[in-house]
Structure prediction request, 114 residues.
Amino acid sequence: MAQVQRLICCSSEVEEAGLGFRFKMIHLDAEVEAFVIRFRGRVYGYLNQCGHVPAELDWQSGQFFDDSKIYLICSIHGALYSPESGRCLGGRCQGVGLKAIAVIEIDGNIFLDQ
Prediction:
């Protein structure tokens, strides 16, 4: 089966270690919230769900990074995640990381790469 690429947003809408972009996608036959962020020049995508509790990560729409701009942080209980892998780095995530989604950046646009 061929890969399908769906446009998420323009690259300029995702700031380096700053404002991310939220969007909806189909995952396991259900519509879910997801997001894309930029860290160290690369884009990464995740389902917008804490690894510990079924809550969205961002404390304000598109705000996923902690104050240091080094980690992604859960708005509910402060669990910290690696922006590059989604791996739990501390807090109540108890080793459960974020669910990564495949994204790709081409010619000034970011696509979901399904």
Q: What stands out?
A: The mean pLDDT is 92. The chain has one domain: 5-113. The domain at 5-113 is CATH 2.102.10.10 (Rieske Iron-sulfur Protein). The CA atoms of residues 17 and 39 lie 5 Å apart.
